[in-house]
Design brief:
The chain is an all-alpha fold. It contains 1 helix and no strands.
């Protein structure tokens, strides 16, 4: 900062105070500009964040939920098919008692 008590080589004492006021105004203007720039940057980041949030909420989440529902349907279908195959396999085997003999009574027909 400028020392207002220091006299300029040319001019009156009013010029000294004018220079000091000018320097103070310049410093205040620079601080104000820096603060305005910071506000502008934060606002721009806020806009970008809101845009990303909308994209996630309106595009990504619904798409991922649809994919999850598709995967669950496929898994359910696979489980049903596997249960059906096991049932068919169990139905195609002859009934066997614990002692290894058939319960159909036809073991002597072989």
């Amino acid at each position: 900062m400028h020392d207002p008590t220091r006299r300029c080589a040319r001019g009156s004492s009013a010029l000294v105070y004018a220079v000091a006021a000018h320097e103070a105004a310049l410093a205040a203007g620079a601080r104000c500009a820096a603060a305005e720039r910071a506000v502008h940057l934060v606002q721009a980041e806020l806009v970008a964040t809101r845009t990303r949030q909308r994209a996630v909420e309106h595009r990504w989440i619904p798409r991922l939920e649809r994919e999850l529902a598709t995967i669950r349907r496929r898994l359910d279908e696979q489980e049903l098919e596997e249960a059906l195959r096991l049932r068919w396999a169990a139905d195609s085997r002859p009934d066997v008692r614990g002692d290894g003999t058939s319960t159909t009574g036809q073991e002597g027909l072989r």
